[in-house]
């Protein structure tokens, strides 16, 4: 029997991007089993362990086998006791987006039965509730395109030797809602808004004048110092609980100026400390 070096369980809502995530993992060298009925997970793991050349395994499961899905969490506990620990990647999106994607694909939801599509989504969320709560990484694909989702998955799993903390820093606008996959949320609305400064309004936090305006504010660097200390304080606890993926969201009113500049600044600090960090500007360009 050979050891599985890395095991990722991919699950989440129908239409949230499980197929895209699976393709990315396959390109990263994972042996991918797609749409495995949950009741066959243990048998599949045993079969893989007999192989000589499979070290990275990804299994995609969904809620279609609902009468068996409830026992999946128990199977994961049993596998962990046997030395096989799953990193759970959960893909999420807002209901209205999932409905639009399903309608565009012209496929019925597997749990809608004879009812509405939204009813199927509601059943699916209830069925997946426990797994979402135990997920190591939740990715909200509501405002992500296929390439952006692929970037998030690659950033999380491409480094096979990394066992430290990996972070995604996401800028967003409160007017568009808080990212549902955020582990930590920082509100940048306490800083003066470049939107009201002549010449800065059409620019973004990626432009030097806006970046300098935001970071030169008296409380900006103090905030970054304290928030960096908070992440450092929590890191040991995250890793002890086998949470290697952290999503930190920086928000301002529209997600264009303050949140963008401060998320870039904070990502720089994380990288200096050896944390592999991806920056995503969720709402930049929406205004």
Structural summary, described in words:
With 287 residues, the chain is α/β, with parallel strands linked by helices. The chain is globular, with a radius of gyration of 20 Å. The mean pLDDT is 89. The longest helix has 21 residues. Helices cover 41% and strands 18% of the residues. The protein has 2 domains: 152 residues, P-loop containing nucleotide triphosphate hydrolases (Rossmann fold); 116 residues, no CATH class. The protein starts with 5 loop residues before the first strand and ends in a 6-residue tail after the last strand. A 5-stranded parallel beta sheet has the order 2-3-1-4-5, sandwiched between helices.
Architecture blueprint of SSEs:
Blueprint: E1 6-12, H1 18-27, E2 31-33, H2 41-49, E3 56-60, H3 66-69, H4 72-81, E4 86-92, H5 95-105, H6 117-134, E5 137-140, H7 146-157, E6 166-173, E7 184-187, H8 208-215, H9 220-240, E8 245-252, H10 258-272, E9 276-281
Parallel strand pairs: 1-3, 1-4, 2-3, 4-5, 6-8, 6-9, 7-8
Helix pairs in contact: 1-7, 8-10
Main β sheet profile: 5 strands, parallel
Per CATH, the class of the largest domain reads Alpha Beta
The end-to-end distance, rounded to whole angstroms, is 56 Å
Outline the low-pLDDT stretches.
Answer: none
The secondary structure category is alpha/beta
- Domains, number: 2
What oligomeric assembly is this protein in?
A: single chain
Gyration radius, rounded: 20 Å
The count of helical stretches stands at 10
Strand content: 15-25%
Order of helices and strands: EHEHEHHEHHEHEEHHEHE
CATH topology of the largest domain: Rossmann fold
- Strand order in the largest sheet: 2-3-1-4-5
Helical amount: 40-55%
CATH superfamily of the largest domain: P-loop containing nucleotide triphosphate hydrolases
**Mean pLDDT rating:** 89
Assign the CATH architecture of the largest domain.
Answer: 3-Layer(aba) Sandwich
């Amino acid at each position: 029997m050979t050891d599985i070096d890395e095991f990722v369980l991919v699950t989440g809502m129908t239409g949230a991007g499980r197929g895209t995530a699976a393709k990315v993992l396959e390109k990263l060298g994972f042996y991918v089993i797609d749409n495995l009925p949950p009741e066959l997970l243990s048998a599949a793991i045993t079969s893989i362990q007999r192989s000589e050349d499979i070290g990275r395994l990804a299994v995609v499961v969904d809620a279609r086998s609902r009468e068996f899905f409830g026992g999946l969490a128990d199977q994961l506990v049993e596998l962990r006791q046997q030395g096989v620990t799953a990193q759970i990647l959960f893909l999420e999106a807002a209901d209205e987006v999932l409905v639009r994607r399903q309608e565009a694909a012209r496929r019925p939801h597997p749990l809608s039965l004879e009812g509405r599509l939204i009813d199927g989504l509601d059943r699916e969320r209830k069925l997946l509730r426990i797994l979402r709560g135990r997920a190591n990484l939740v990715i909200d694909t509501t405002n992500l395109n296929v390439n952006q989702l692929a970037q998030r998955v690659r950033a999380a799993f491409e480094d096979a030797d990394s066992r430290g903390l990996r972070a995604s820093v996401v800028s967003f606008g409160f007017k568009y809602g808080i990212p549902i996959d955020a582990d930590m949320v920082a509100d940048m609305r306490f800083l003066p808004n470049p939107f009201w400064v002549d010449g800065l309004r059409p620019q973004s936090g990626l432009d030097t004048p806006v970046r300098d305006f935001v970071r030169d504010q008296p409380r900006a660097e103090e905030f970054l110092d304290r928030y960096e200390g908070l992440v450092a304080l929590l890191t040991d606890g995250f890793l002890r609980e086998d949470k290697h993926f952290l999503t930190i969201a920086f928000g301002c009113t529209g997600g264009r100026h303050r949140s963008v500049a401060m998320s870039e600044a904070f990502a720089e600090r994380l990288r200096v400390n050896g944390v592999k960090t991806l920056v995503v500007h969720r709402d930049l360009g929406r205004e």
